[in-house]
Design a protein that fits this description.
Elements (H helix, E strand, L loop, with lengths): L2 H5 L15 H4 L5 H10 L6 H4 L16 E5 L23 E5 L5 H4 L1 H11 L3
Parallel strand pairs: 1-2
C-alpha cells in the first residue's frame, strides 16, 4: 500500500491536519510500511487545536525555567511558509534549539535520534 492510498482512507471531518491529510508529509523519509504503522496508531487531531486561542497565566517567554525546542529539520507537515520553527519556538523567549534530521513523526522513523535530541534538550 502506498502512502498516497493511506491518506485516501481518511474521513475529511476527522482527518489529522497535515496539509490535506497527506501522511507522506508527516513521515516524508519513511517507507510505506512505516507510514501505515503510524496511520494505524495515531489518532485524528481536531483542527481546533490549531485555531483556538489558549490562555496562560504567564507568558512562556517570562517563565523562569529552562526551555528547549527540538526542531525536526525535514518536518513538512506544515507548509514552509507556516513553519513550526521559528514561528512557535520564538514564543519561548530564551531557549536552547536542538536541530535533528527527520520528519514530524521521528518517533517512528528514527526513535534513537529523537531520544538523543530530547536528552540534548534537557542537558544542564
Amino acid at each position: 500500500m502506498s502512502r498516497c492510498s493511506i491518506r485516501s482512507r481518511r474521513n475529511a471531518a476527522t482527518a489529522r491536519w497535515c496539509c490535506g491529510s497527506d501522511l507522506a508529509r508527516v513521515i516524508n523519509e519513511g517507507d510505506a510500511e512505516t507510514a501505515k504503522k503510524a496511520y494505524d496508531i495515531l489518532n485524528p487531531q481536531p483542527i481546533k487545536t490549531f485555531t483556538d486561542k489558549i490562555s496562560l497565566k504567564t507568558n512562556p517567554a517570562d517563565m523562569q525555567i529552562g526551555k528547549s525546542y527540538v526542531n525536526c529539520r525535514e518536518d513538512a507537515s506544515l507548509p514552509h511558509s507556516y513553519p513550526w520553527h521559528p514561528r512557535l519556538s520564538e514564543k519561548l523567549g530564551l531557549f536552547r534549539l536542538v536541530q535533528v534530521p527527520g520528519s514530524h513523526e521521528l518517533c517512528f522513523t528514527n526513535p534513537k535520534a529523537l531520544a538523543q535530541a530530547i536528552m540534548d534538550a534537557g542537558r544542564d
